[in-house]
């Protein structure tokens, strides 16, 4: 019986007919893709007959199910010859051996089911490696090991793949081993502890090994410091439920190795296909589509779910530089963590940037989460330095109430006054005062003087100075666990005052969704995330939104995921600090100051009729007035834009605005911004706030 296979090339057709006559039950065609590329010749492999009984099953490059590892490859070899007479290569060593794949060229199965161009095995491996790394970041529980399937027993390839794999010492443990290296830096330690806690929250049993060695050959700390660090880590891990399995003595804690017990999750199936299998399948059919879909769903399910069991309030710490705002924030998380209502974050974990740790000051705003018995709080730690006031304005714009931190040794300072003014102008109605560093002041009359000054200052800026709670304490004492009457007890008193004095705001959930973007970042393998405080409305997953402002055309996209403090949410509501995963949007396409809104609900404009109050010199404003075409900087929501002020009629060039005046003017922004009537804004010049105002009407072109 004759069998014919016709292969088509480009730009002309070549039919290579190979005939073979053997028994009808013993026929197999093994073909290669024939491609004609202008000056290149055809490449093909003739059809060879082969008995059906010995025909190898069509293979795909894949990672087998973990439960089949021992059955298929036997126990793992110990590389010392104790393998029962078999080669160590025949035992499981972290790499998957599949000798039946003989394809010289392969095709990659895309997520949409289409097949990529045929390519060499080496090129495919590089692509495969890159794809698996992405999968490991998106769905770490579905890819059992950070090792790649090997498709040949060539020594060089095996060495390359083995270099990517770290085999656990105990085969009964999971197929994932994580090494966390650190020195004695507080931020680094806190960050690693959070990673460990994440593993435990996912239902894994975690065992750890403490290695007290300096693997980075840095200057060794004192033995007392090393012992203190080891004790701290052991206590934290024990509280999380981890079990110490081994301890190696040394001079410095150098590494913590975590073995996490594996969970039964779907394995990542074939990511590559041979050309033969690709030809046998209809175009556009992806054999691993359902597996990948299951993996993604499983991954989403692994994230902690944000539960709305308490009223949500946004607060923050404001005040002069070096008065202890970040230390107080860390002390609050420490105290609430002892009650099981927060995750403890040290000072270095809040100020994460190297420049912040180097200079010992906060530069950008940090967002912290904690709860009390009555409420759930999103806490913004604002910078106090005058050079970073625009970051403070961005943070204050998201607050429902604020905690003003004042050092007992200094009293009110310039940034204390400016922060109170800005907080008032962005809509903060209630303030709680925390007088910090009380342990450093022995004179009680000094504390009374600070209280009098603060009450007078609060009244000056429109707050209820006589009724505002003022708590005297020491954040450092609370952090170090000494003088509880000034430390822990005062933190409890502060939070009680915040619970009672700052009211729970009424959220505007009936209007269309709007969120002002505060931060933009990318998550490898997932996409671009825009985060900020939701101003109004409700947004659900898979909803379409528009990104407006920034002087760029409106971007229409879809929200594929919503998270609040790294916890998955089905919806984002007014008042939430949410991160929105945006489909098909590049990191460089959006920036702080733009807004995410329901399509058609908001438009960007560049001309507004505004009502302003010009601050006097005593209030920190200008000493002299200004006139027509004055060009300051405008801060509205989280946007920061250059602006120009002029008179509505535009005729009186000589007319001047003096400090202390209330005036109506036309504001023109350098780039269109998403602003509406009733929106508050601030005008700044030369590092100081010179005016505050309200948008009364949008002026159409």
Helix-strand blueprint:
Elements: E1 7-8, E2 13-14, H1 69-73, E3 105-108, E4 119-120, H2 121-138, H3 155-162, E5 177-181, H4 186-201, E6 206-211, H5 223-240, E7 243-248, E8 255-260, E9 272-274, H6 275-280, H7 289-302, E10 312-319, H8 325-338, H9 347-350, H10 354-359, E11 366-371, E12 376-381, H11 389-396, E13 401-407, H12 414-425, E14 430-436, H13 444-460, E15 470-472, H14 475-480, H15 488-501, E16 514-523, E17 527-536, E18 538-540, E19 544-548, E20 555-564, E21 567-568, E22 571-573, E23 577-582, E24 595-597, E25 605-614, E26 633-636, E27 639-646, E28 662-673, E29 680-685, E30 688-698
List keywords for this structure.
disordered N terminus, 6 domains, transit peptide, 25% strand, six-stranded antiparallel β-barrel, alpha+beta, mitochondrion, six-stranded mixed β-sheet, nucleotide-binding, 15 helices, Elongation factor Tu, 701 residues, Transl_B-barrel_sf
